[in-house]
Amino acid sequence: MPARAAPSTVHVDTETGFSGGEVQVMGLVDGLRARGMGVTLVTPGHGALAARAAAAGFGVRPLAAHGDLDLLYVVRLARLLARERADLVHLHTARAAWLGGLAARLAGVPAVVTRRQDKRLAGSWKRELVYRRLARAAIGIAPRVTEQIRATGAEAGRIGTIWSSVDPARLVPRAPRDVLRAELQLRPDEFVVATAAQLVERKGLDVLLAALALLPPQRPVVALVAGDGPERARLDALARALPGPHRAVLLGHVANVADVVGAADAFALPSRAEGLGVAALEAMALGLPVVATRVGGLEQAVGACGLLVPPDDAAALAAAVASLARDAELAQRLGSAARARVAAHFLFDVQVARYALLYERVLAGDAAPAAALGEP
Q1: Pick from 220, 279, 212: nearest CA to 245
Q2: What does the alpha-carbon distance between residue 68 and residue 80 come to, in Å, rounded to a whole number?
Q3: Contact 335, 287 (CB under 8 A)
Q4: Which of 24, 52, 178, 245 could form an S-S bond across to 220 if both were Cys, CB 3.0 to 4.6 Å?
Q5: Under a CB-based contact definition with an 8 Å cutoff, are residues 48 and 41 in contact?
Q6: DSSP-assigned beta bridge partners for residue 261
């Protein structure tokens, strides 16, 4: 009997930007391709993912959705799935889950949906239709996100958790720590807290700057902020208003975030809401102690390997940063535990293997394909 051909998978991402979700998509399709699986990306042709995927040698099919009522997109995607002879379609964004779920049903192709946001799904007829009827399997990137899927009433055997992941081999600073700190004009006595995020209200970076103003003056603390977004002007103003000796440096877009993390002593992610927070995982992989908020999957990912504070609590955030600045042993212990936690649970190899298993069960017609995943 001839060996069964590797399945052909189509991955749909409707975003035009490139953030944590797109990093996950790129890592997954790269890992699937390495396993010999067929992978094609469907994404807006003018988006950042299309350019990066094409540069990496992936098959890209440009297709943009214009709102949640774009029925022409549904028809075009269904025809594309037929042309590609897709065995399975994986839908990676909320809009992709809705429109792509309809297209998959029209084309007769089983759909897997990944949910990345810790937002309420129950009560929305569109979302309930996606998770209860259109998706053969629905995956949350952290247990807290999976709970929101479960609340839609979808069958338990079709719901599972596959953690978002990182590839430590790609998180390499381009220079030694002392060189990076010198380039950033950091003094040896300064305790450096890095963060990397879109400059949007949800990330809570205004709370980080407010926390700097509450820190005791004994040791200067510098916040290095990598990222850009609509909050840039407001955060710049808050940074300029900080009293000495503490300061914040807004770096804008940084091509290699490892260069910033590699210069730091700790990492902070003070999000008001978070599906998981891959930036925190990247810092953990590099051995930094993390201060994070108790929100969504971020709390679950960091666990006991970091310091957790309530969202929107500048005083608690300041106290956590101050404890790391004055206790080098605590910072080192948390950083080492964080690196070990990533190695045990959050590597791309693990994510790819779990998705490959899920695809296998879906294609085999298993009525409860996610049950094969077990606990995350």
Answers
A1: 220
A2: 19
A3: yes
A4: 245
A5: no
A6: none
DSSP 257-309: HHHHHTT-SEEEE--SS-S--HHHHHHHHTT--EEEES-HHHHHHHGGGEEEE
As a whole number of angstroms, the distance between CA 143 and CA 317 comes to 25
The two tokens of residue 214 are 């509450």
Q: Which CATH architecture has domain 8-165+347-373?
A: 3-Layer(aba) Sandwich (3.40)
Task: Give yes or no for a contact between 282 and 261, defined as CB atoms under 8 angstroms apart.
Answer: yes
Structure token pair of residue 221: 């603390």
Q: Which is nearest to 296 in space by CA: 113, 119, 160, 123? A: 119
Single-letter amino acid code for the residue at 99: L
What is the pTM (predicted TM-score) of this model?
0.87
Domain locations along the chain: 8-165+347-373, 168-345
| pLDDT tens for the chain, residues 1 to 376 | 344 578 999 999 999 988 888 999 999 999 999 999 999 999 999 999 999 999 999 999 999 999 999 999 999 999 999 999 999 999 999 999 999 999 999 999 999 999 998 888 888 899 999 999 999 999 999 999 999 999 999 999 999 999 999 998 889 999 999 999 999 999 999 999 999 999 999 999 999 999 999 999 989 999 999 999 999 999 999 999 998 899 999 999 998 999 999 999 999 999 999 988 899 999 999 999 999 999 989 999 999 999 999 999 999 999 999 999 999 999 999 999 999 999 988 999 999 999 999 999 999 999 999 999 987 6
Write the CA distances from 126 to 132, 133, 161, integer angstroms: 10, 10, 21
Whether the ω angle into residue 310 lies within 30 degrees of 0, i.e. cis, is no
Q: Enter the tokens of residue 342.
A: 């990533």
> Which residue reads 């995943």 in tokens?
373
- The token duo for 143 is 């247990």
Residue 166 is classified by DSSP as B
* Level-2 CATH architecture, domain 168-345: 3-Layer(aba) Sandwich (3.40)
Burial (CB count within 10 angstroms: exposed 0-12, middle 13-18, buried 19+), residue 365: exposed
| CA angle at 258 for the pair 255 and 259, rounded to the nearest 5° | 75
- Here the tokens at position 74 are 């549904």
